[in-house]
From TrEMBL:
Its main location: nucleus. PANTHER family: C2H2-TYPE DOMAIN-CONTAINING PROTEIN, ZINC FINGER PROTEIN. Keywords: DNA-binding, Metal-binding, Nucleus, Repeat, Transcription, Transcription regulation, Zinc, Zinc-finger. It comes from the Eukaryota. The lineage of its organism: Eukaryota, Metazoa, Ecdysozoa, Arthropoda, Hexapoda. This is C2H2-type domain-containing protein. It is found in: Nucleus. InterPro entries: Znf_AD, Znf_C2H2_sf, Znf_C2H2_type. Belongs to the hunchback C2H2-type zinc-finger protein family. Belongs to the krueppel C2H2-type zinc-finger protein family. Coiled coil: none annotated. One of its GO terms (molecular function) is DNA binding.
């Protein structure tokens, strides 16, 4: 027969004999022995011993020492508070509003004997204090829950549908609305409903146009404190959120989350009509509007142009105003789209962020990489229904079809010249009308 393993108490090093009771120091969450032991003996290393245990005597000693320490902390807090009160009352510059106190002289504090004294007897209610922070409670279970949640990183409340965990019933209840579809918070102006009060408060500003959060450097104002905080980084130049894989920095946590999907290839937003998956909620909305609806709600007030995206309409309006808000800080280049400025800056920095995963090709634009990838696939998905012509891009097929139809949609506004492509028209104007010689 094999020998029985000997159980040794990690605290007193004595053998635990027979049926003597013992307790695990690492995972006895009810008694919180490990936390209490480290509380007054922080240098002890329990990891040296696998599954360290404490005998019944040591368990009682840990409990008593911890309770004694909490009593000392409680007494010290009470004494200090009383000391502060007395010091404040001794200061003859302080006016005491209470009717049961009367300051008679500069040196002595006297209490009006005809009125009951304001110092009450200390409460007999027992308070449990957390040694790591200012938390206290008259219920021991509340202190245990506080220790488990705040100082151990545990999230004891779990969703029974997904992997979500949290620390409070309120957070769990709010999360469950995502599964039930419940939207109890309703706008009293329109039909908007949501599942949390913060979203409703944010929505209400749409009706009032109120923007209470204002920048003290420029004219920027916002309906959300979070947006103002992000805006302030433009003035300070700070970018607190950093990617732990590459050198990317940004001003908002949401931007970092989106960026990380480039490394993980995660596409959490799925279309419920087709197989499309997107990296952001905006990409999914944009996909649904472009592919599954014909609606174009954003219309130009000057011409007949209409589009599915507000951002596209804003860019279109620059054609009427002539404004080019995006400017290069190195040369005189200006443009109407932020992406164009980003591409332009690659000329100055020499950066080529778009890399082929098959060969050594690097490009400055995603479009250039897409064009290059067809060299590896030899795929030509766009085919002419009249002849055998095949091409890589839809715009190339559109241009080719004009050879069959004879269409020349690009017209010179100076002479009667017409052509099939915009490039030919620009070339014509440069050679015939402007005599410009840009290549030096």
């Amino acid at each position: 027969m094999g020998e029985k393993s000997t159980k040794i108490c990690r605290i007193c090093s004595l053998e635990i004999v027979g049926t003597e009771q013992y307790y695990f120091l690492n995972n006895d969450n009810k008694l919180m022995l490990q936390f209490k032991l480290l509380n007054f003996l922080p240098n002890i290393d329990l990891s040296i011993t696998p599954n360290p245990i404490a005998c019944n005597s040591c368990m009682i000693a840990i409990e008593e020492i911890y309770e004694f320490k909490q009593l000392c902390i409680q007494t010290e807090t009470t004494v200090r508070n009383l000391g502060i009160i007395k010091e404040e009352l001794r200061d003859d510059n302080i006016k005491v509003e209470l009717t049961n106190l009367q300051i008679i002289s500069d040196n002595d504090l006297e209490v009006n004997k005809d009125i009951p004294v304001c110092f009450e007897e200390p409460s007999q209610t027992k308070l449990y204090y957390c040694y790591n922070c200012n938390f206290n409670s008259n219920k021991k279970i509340s202190l245990i829950q506080h220790l488990q949640v705040q100082h151990t990183g545990r999230k004891p409340l779990k969703c029974n549908i997904c992997d979500y965990c949290c620390t409070t019933n309120y957070l769990l209840k709010r999360h469950m609305r995502k599964h039930t579809g419940e939207k109890p918070f309703k706008c009293n102006v329109c039909d908007y409903c949501c599942n949390n009060r913060a979203s409703l408060n944010k929505h209400v500003y749409r009706h009032t146009d109120e923007k209470p959060f204002k920048c003290n450097v420029c004219d920027y104002s916002s309906s959300r404190m979070k947006n103002l905080k992000i805006h302030m980084y433009k003035h300070t130049g700070e970018k607190p959120f950093k990617c732990n894989i590459c050198d990317y920095f940004c001003t908002a946590n949401s931007n970092l989350t989106r960026h990380m999907r480039m490394h993980t290839a995660e596409k959490p937003f799925k279309c419920n009509i087709c197989d499309y998956c997107g990296t952001t909620k905006w990409c999914l909305r944009n996909h649904i509007m472009r592919k599954h609806t014909s609606e174009k709600p954003f219309k130009c007030s000057v011409c007949d142009y209409c589009t599915k995206q507000k951002k596209t309409l804003k860019t279109h309006m620059y054609k009427h105003t002539g404004e080019k808000p995006f400017k290069c800080n190195i040369c005189d280049y200006c443009c109407t789209v932020s992406l164009s400025l980003t591409r332009h800056m690659h000329m100055h920095t020499g950066e080529k962020p778009f890399k082929c995963n098959i060969c050594d090709y690097c490009g400055t634009t995603k479009f250039g990489l897409k064009l290059h990838m067809y060299k590896h696939t030899i795929e030509k998905p766009f085919k002419c229904n009249i002849c055998d012509y095949c091409c890589i891009f839809n715009y190339s097929l559109t241009k080719h079809m004009r050879t069959h139809t004879g269409e020349k949609p690009f017209k010179c506004n100076i002479c009667e010249y017409c052509c099939t492509t915009n490039w030919y028209l620009r070339k014509h104007i440069m050679h015939k009308h402007t005599r410009e010689k840009p290549f030096k």
